[in-house]
């Protein structure tokens, strides 16, 4: 197998690596490489099955070809191609200091997210959450904080929601779901192995799956009944996808607002009493 991507070429380019290795592949694996080289801008939005169909081969051959090309698998290839694709506005220089740049990129992230949201899918997701007997939330790493925040907001409008932080606890919760329940899963890449395991467990037990991701197509989206995406912002293969996460937070708040409009007014009133009771009485 070729050396890892970061050491394979001087510039670390995924396409340069593929060009260098493709000539040594067999017929079927070479067909996969040719499709990738011919249509690199489309690959980040494809599933493994779509690439296999375009190359006239099987999904197993696609995965094997990706590994022969120096990637861990198809999702690693997809993320690398997205990372080095055409620059998004969040990659471009901004006049002013670092503070100006952060706020400018944040504004761009929100605009891109607003344009990317499928309003019909958002309404469908809200209806599922409003009618769910129980909502189990799953997110890990940098995707966890936005979903933890949203889970508390869902609780304030009377939704029975669970958002365990522990990876195993998420899967345990998913294993106890049923057809009346919803699993709300968030992953920037849509390919987080632990979040996928939770979604698969919930789906196996009949729960409905709502997927939130930066990508319109992803393994998580393939499992979902409803998929919501915010679009890709900034460098895609980065340790901390902050600006994408900002879009996720606002999308989740929009989802909370949609569910709130469907909830009984008494639910919110009850939660306001909880907040009031938590405030210290100065006269006590």
Short description:
With 284 residues, the protein is α/β, with parallel strands linked by helices. It has helices at 5-8, 14-22, 27-38, 48-55, 59-68, 74-83, 98-116, 119-131, 144-156, 167-175, 193-204, 219-223, 242-262, 265-278; strands spanning 134-138, 161-162, 181-186, 208-213, 226-229.
Write up what this structure looks like.
It is a single chain. Residues 1-12 have low confidence and may be disordered. 56% of the residues lie in helices and 8% in strands. β4 (208-213), α12 (219-223) and β5 form a beta-alpha-beta unit. It is globular and about 75 Å long. The chain has a five-stranded parallel β-sheet, sandwiched between helices. It is an alpha/beta fold and 284 residues long.
């Amino acid at each position: 197998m070729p050396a890892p991507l970061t050491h394979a070429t001087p510039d670390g380019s995924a396409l340069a690596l593929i060009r260098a290795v493709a000539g040594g592949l067999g017929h079927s694996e070479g067909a996969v490489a040719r499709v990738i080289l011919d249509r690199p801008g489309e690959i980040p939005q494809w599933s493994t099955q779509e690439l296999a169909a375009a190359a006239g081969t099987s999904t197993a051959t696609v995965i094997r070809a990706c590994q022969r090309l120096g990637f861990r698998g198809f999702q690693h290839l997809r993320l690398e191609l997205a990372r080095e694709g055409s620059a998004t506005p969040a990659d471009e220089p901004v006049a002013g200091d670092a503070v100006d740049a952060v706020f400018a990129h944040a504004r761009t992230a929100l605009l891109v997210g607003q344009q990317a949201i499928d309003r019909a899918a958002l309404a469908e997701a809200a209806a599922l959450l409003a009618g769910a007997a129980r909502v189990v939330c799953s997110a890990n790493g940098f995707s966890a904080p936005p979903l933890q925040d949203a889970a508390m907001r869902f609780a304030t409008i009377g939704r029975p929601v669970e958002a365990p932080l522990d990876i195993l606890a998420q899967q345990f919760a998913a294993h106890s779901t049923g057809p009346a329940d919803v699993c709300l899963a968030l992953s920037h890449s849509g390919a987080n192995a632990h979040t996928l395991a939770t979604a698969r467990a919930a789906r196996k037990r009949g729960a409905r799956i709502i997927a939130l991701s930066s990508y319109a197509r992803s393994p998580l989206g393939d499992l979902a009944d409803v998929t919501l995406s915010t679009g890709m912002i900034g460098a895609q293969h980065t340790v901390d996808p902050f600006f994408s996460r900002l879009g996720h937070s606002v999308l989740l708040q929009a989802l909370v607002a949609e569910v709130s409009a469907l909830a009984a007014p008494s639910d919110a009133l009850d939660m306001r009493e909880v907040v009031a009771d938590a405030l210290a009485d100065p006269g006590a």
